[in-house]
Amino acid sequence: MASQSQGAVPTSTPADVTFGGSKSVVIPEGGELYSDPIPIRINAGSALLTSVHLVNQVTYLVMHPWAAPDTLGYVSAVGSGDHTADATDTAFTGTGTTWGRFTDILTDVDVVAADNPPSVSILGDGLVNTRTTGTTAGYNTPRFSNDLSARLRTNTDGTPVYGIVASGIENNYLGTDQGAGAGGRSVLTRLDRDVLSIPGLRTVVVTQGLEDIVAGHDDVDIDSALGLLRKQLKGWGIKVIFTTLTPCNGYSACTATVDQNRIDTNTWITDQLDLTAPTVSST
Question: Taking the CB of residue 233, how many other CB atoms lie within 10 A of it?
């Protein structure tokens, strides 16, 4: 692992990633493994380059496409050997190699900052379904999490630079799990895995619900799911911020009924504001 210079080129010789001191590891089917701490320094906002050497036959890898504007994967030719320590991109530019905007195997990286800032999770549905013709996000389509992270790093008003974690899945639903090749486990199913497991979590920004409405889950179900999500997070002492759902004009599935459900859901969201504060009148 190393900071990325350009493409598959690291800024320096990659550091070995070990598991219990070993550079070789077997990941159980459906399981997760955490590596030993990696002794490298990275700059805020910079991209990380990680390389994984797979041996024997690999039938299928779970892929997360369009994870972020700057997420790219490079694959060396079959049988070309172990290139995890390469300081050049030669092995990833020859015949039989492929690349694309996807992530495999690695799901996240925990980073220790000097001032140990709290974490903020951005929980969203991506507002797009990349498996449906005409709804694919552009490679450089802005992501809420990326923009918020950049704004915090460049702010001049004294706002703390919190750690931002993208916890969204494209075409994801709030309370309904989807099958293979779709939007994955629902928010309420994956909450422990993708949100509550984040170190130092203090706040969750919920930018989710439009995919449910487009899919025909009515606003009553959406309101119930959002309410349950809020209760679970607040039960863990986590602050919850809801964003209203954006218009979906121009998307064929966004009918007048769908848009009205969106408006009704936004009304529920804005009604969650604290209305118990005292009113001050003056004459």
Answer: 21
Smallest Cα–Cα separation from 101: which of 42, 170, 150?
170
Q: What is the pTM of this model?
A: 0.83
Residue with tokens 């009148």: 281
- Give the residue carrying structure tokens 């701490």: 37
Alpha-carbon distance of 140 to 165, in angstroms, equals 19
Q: What does pLDDT average to in each consecutive run of 10 residues of the chain (283 residues)?
A: 90 92 86 89 86 82 66 86 92 83 80 86 76 58 83 91 89 86 86 93 94 87 92 95 87 85 93 56 41
First to last CA, the chain: 65
| Number of neighbours of residue 246 by Cβ within 10 angstroms | 11
Nearest one of 163, 154, 153, 169 to 68, comparing CA atoms = 169
228 backbone dihedrals φ, ψ, rounded to 5° = -65, -40
The full set of domain ranges for the chain reads 1-110, 119-270
CATH architecture of 119-270: 3-Layer(aba) Sandwich (3.40)
